[in-house]
Write a structure and sequence with these properties.
Structural class: mainly beta
Helix content: under 10%
Radius of gyration: 26 Å
CATH class of the domain at 19-56 and 555-862: Mainly Beta
Strand content: 35-45%
Largest sheet: 8 strands, mixed
CATH topology of the domain at 19-56 and 555-862: Methylamine Dehydrogenase, Chain H
Length: 863
């Protein structure tokens, strides 16, 4: 099990004083459950402090999604560097990061390596993911030379006649987090609806594109087979930021990869690194998503690989003319000499919105982050629009317009700290007027909010004075549902006012990213949020947003736990969707709130269950059946998913299953009764300036620990305490890299249990797996190119206890297998979506390899 602060995670929000922690705590104690969970704080003493003091430790310096994204990004992009020469105790070689270009914002304070700044991050090139995906493509084709031929006409990436990964779900999670306990899915960045409202596409933030042909009653994935063409280097990107279709032919689909909603978090924290997660540029489908084509930038225009899309707008009169709002400017899709199309950069700067409207001639409108609104009649030439647009303290801007009335144009504007600055409308004289009495669509948390992450506006297609606003959450301490407001606008003197505003999002999940009407239909409003897709069939009069998430399998699992003898029972932590449980089948049940992290099932008594969310360890004694099952204990904490581990399955020693260890900051907390109590005397300090990031028991008396600074420790229990020994700096052969240790696995071929494998996160070196034989370290990452691992973050590692020569790793690209103890590696891709893999485990009593993909659920492979 690897450790990560997830959403990437992640989505994971925290702290008793912050909105997100309160939200998480309330969710877990919701009145919809027959019994509310109780939460206590571990007593003060030694290094133990209650969670309310976490602000002093740094966990509260950001709100909302930053709490899960920032540690996630740091895990992915921490610089990997060779250690110093022998005699320096294994200290790292320090390399200064390049100074950022003029105008780049630098506000980085390392979460996982306290006291450090942006120098801990790798200088990652823009085409990093495109290149790594291309390498992965070649490796897959090399392993299965007939892969493409066998898969022709096949609907997914599975290969007939071979072993394949199979999905275990969740295809949907029932009893989710909003009023009425609706079914939920994962984060949705964009929705495109065809005329008639039955055919629609949903672009998910980490699971690709999905299609429905029945108004959202059922969905199917469209990108699982995107990587079958070896000539297409866009192996697959499942991180989507925007989607648009041709209204006259909805089988023509445009997708902007790279998620714009998270751009400000990347750009403000990651210097000279990727500003969005796994963007490979714009892709197009001409057949409703069955096949996809990567489109490139024209000569003289920068590549959009590694960039982020906020929105796409298709010219209603010419579907070949498409405008994209990206974090690198405005791009226009144009015909290319000799056939095909190319994307031409038209403006610099971050542009957070673009819309099109046609009343005779087409008008494009775009918004530049922090500045104002622009217009264009052709998508090529842009000029400022209107006068009196607000200046000073302007952040993200989102536009809404009637599709057939360019004069009905609205701008939703945030402050630089993400609160609502105002909603504006351009009057007949071309002057922007602030609409008074706007609702609190972005509630402030200590003066800031999430307007850079979740912001949406829609204009009623038949009534220019009726608009819908979407933001973060509605301040309802019982459910913390979506912030969606129906607003009636009317003239007021020389300006406008909200004559009425009603909250209508209570039945939808929080964190709204998109609001869109079915074309020409004022009575159908679609919503995309961190909990999937919801549809209101009477938005003018009701708040009845209904869940439309069946089959929208884009949830983001972090870590999971397995029943020791019944493999159908799995419990999993989910980004911003709490913790879910299944007894078998793709439909899972929501059992705990907040941002789910690690889960542990007591292998001797499976009715005892531990789950982690937002700094709290929750314990159940009934198998974790529902929300009321859990009682919680608060801990000081430094990341959204603290590692929690128990000794390995050993039915001859059932008492071992009650031993539980939690790593938080530089301390390990030990419970001898499976989390019923956490004595302060059982706190083991680890001599590190970093964060405990990975842990693994070899037995009830031996625990291995890896940190965010590349340190590795062994803890051996005596009668009264734990003795701590450092391993990474052994004189006979120290660990050769310095960076974030993402996971540790015991080498079961060594009966003394002194040997381990570990994986590295971060970026900058392809030697991702290392082996320690009890006295020295050596890389076990194969040969570069032919049998080696990729230079991407590796998150999890598992050793087959029954056949310990076999080692498996989960990386940000793929699951990999070594049959010879790490000497050679090959991808294990058949049927597995190319979403990042956060956790890999082998079931303790069945020959099953399982992997949690952050964006496409959990998959299983028969060994």
């Amino acid at each position: 099990m690897s450790t990560r602060s997830t959403s990437k995670s992640a989505k994971r929000k925290a702290s008793s004083k912050s909105k997100r922690t309160t939200k998480a705590a309330k969710r877990s104690q919701r009145a919809t459950s027959p019994k509310r969970s109780s939460v206590t704080t571990v007593p003060k003493g030694a290094a133990l402090k209650p969670r309310r003091r976490a602000k002093k430790k740094g966990i509260e310096r950001e709100h909302g999604p930053r709490k899960w994204l920032y540690p996630d990004l740091e895990a992915a992009y921490t610089k990997l560097v060779p250690r110093a020469e022998a005699g320096t105790e294994g200290k790292s070689v320090v390399r200064k990061a390049a100074k950022p270009a003029r105008g780049t914002r630098v506000a980085y304070k390392s979460r996982l390596q306290p006291g450090k700044g942006e120098d801990v991050l790798a200088d990652t090139p823009q085409d990093f993911w495109l290149d790594r995906l291309g390498e992965f493509k070649q490796r897959k084709v090399a392993r299965h030379a007939t892969l493409t031929a066998m898969a022709v006409g096949h609907p997914g990436a599975a290969v007939p006649g071979q072993k394949n990964w199979t999905s275990l779900g969740p295809s949907v999670v029932i009893h989710g987090q909003a009023q009425g306990s609706p079914s939920v899915a994962g984060r949705i960045a964009g929705i495109a609806v065809a005329p008639g409202g039955t055919l629609a596409y949903a672009a998910s933030a980490n699971g690709g594109v999905f299609r429905t042909d029945d108004g959202g009653m059922a969905w199917r994935s469209l990108m699982d087979a995107f990587d079958l063409d070896p000539t297409n280097l866009a192996t697959t990107t499942l991180a989507c930021g925007a989607i648009a279709i041709d209204g006259n032919d909805p089988n023509r689909v445009y997708v902007g990869t790279g998620e714009g909603n998270t751009n400000s978090m990347f750009s403000s924290r990651i210097v000279n690194s990727l500003p969005a997660y796994r963007g490979v540029g714009p892709v197009r489908s001409d057949d409703g998503g069955n096949t996809w084509n990567l489109e490139s930038s024209g000569a003289g225009s920068p590549s959009l690989a590694g960039k982020a899309f906020f929105a796409l707008a298709v010219d209603p009169a010419n579907r070949e003319n498409v405008v994209g709002a990206t974090n690198d400017g405005i791009y226009q899709r144009m015909p290319k000499a000799g056939g095909g199309a190319e994307w031409i950069k038209r403006r610099n700067g971050i542009h957070s919105s673009v819309v099109a409207s046609a009343s005779g001639a087409t008008k494009f409108f775009a918004a530049e982050w922090g500045k104002g609104v622009l217009q264009s009649s052709d998508g090529s030439t842009w000029t400022a629009l209107g006068t009196s647009f607000p200046t000073g303290d302007v952040g993200r801007i989102e536009l809404g317009v009637q599709p057939n009335n360019p004069n009905a144009l609205y701008a939703m504007v945030t402050t630089k700290t993400g609160t609502l600055r105002g909603v504006y409308r351009r009057n007949a004289s071309g002057v922007w007027k602030k609409i008074s009495n706007a609702p609190d669509v972005l509630p402030a948390d200590n003066g800031s909010s999430q307007g850079d992450y979740d912001l949406a506006i829609a204009v009623d297609p038949a009534d220019a004075n009726l608009i819908y606003l979407g933001g973060s959450y509605f301040n309802d301490p019982q459910f913390w549902p979506a912030s969606v407001w129906r607003c009636r606008v009317q003239a007021s003197g020389t300006g406008f006012k909200m004559a009425a505003s009603d909250s209508i999002g209570a039945r939808a999940h929080a964190d709204v990213h998109v609001l869109v009407h079915a074309p020409g239909d004022p009575n159908t409003l679609w919503l995309g949020c961190d909990g999937g897709v919801f549809v209101n069939r009477d938005p003018r009069a009701s708040d009845n947003f209904a869940s439309r998430n069946d089959g929208l399998s884009c949830l983001c699992p972090n870590y999971f736990a397995q029943h020791p003898t019944d493999p159908s029972i799995i419990i999993c932590g989910l980004q911003d969707n709490g913790t879910a449980r299944t007894n078998g089948g793709p439909i899972w049940r929501h059992i705990n709130g907040g941002d789910g992290g690690y889960c542990v099932i007591n292998w001797a008594n499976p009715k005892l269950v531990i789950v982690f969310a937002n700094g709290t360890v929750y314990r159940a004694t009934d198998g974790g059946l529902d929300h009321g099952s859990f009682n919680g204990t608060d801990f000081p904490w430094s990341s959204m998913t603290e590692p929690i581990v128990t000794p390995p399955f050993n039915p001859t020693r059932p008492a071992d299953a009650n031993l539980l260890a939690l790593g938080s900051g530089a301390n390990i907390y030990v419970s001898n009764d499976f989390g019923s109590t956490w004595p302060t005397a059982n706190i083991v300090p680890i001599p590190t300036n970093g964060t405990i990031f990975a842990m693994r028991f070899a037995s009830a008396s031996r625990l291995f620990v890896g940190t965010s600074q590349g340190q590795v420790f062994r803890l051996d229990r005596t009668t009264s305490n734990w003795n701590v020994s450092r391993l990474d700096n052994v004189a006979g052969g120290p660990l050769g890299l310095h960076g974030l240790v993402s996971d540790v696995a015991v080498d079961w071929a060594d009966p003394s249990m002194a040997s381990i494998y570990l994986t590295f996160g971060g970026a900058g070196d392809r030697r991702r797996v290392w082996h320690f034989d009890g006295s020295r370290w050596e890389p076990r990452s194969g040969t570069a190119g032919s049998t080696g691992l990729l230079d991407v973050e590796h998150n999890a590692i598992a050793v087959d206890r029954a056949a310990p020569d076999n080692v498996y790793v989960g990386a940000d690209i793929g699951v990999w297998h070594s049959p010879d103890r790490g000497a050679n590696w090959e991808p294990l891709p058949n049927g597995l979506p190319d979403a990042p893999v956060f956790d890999v485990q082998i079931h303790p009593t069945r020959r099953l390899l399982r992997a949690s993909t952050h964006g496409r659920g959990i998959y299983e492979y028969q060994l």
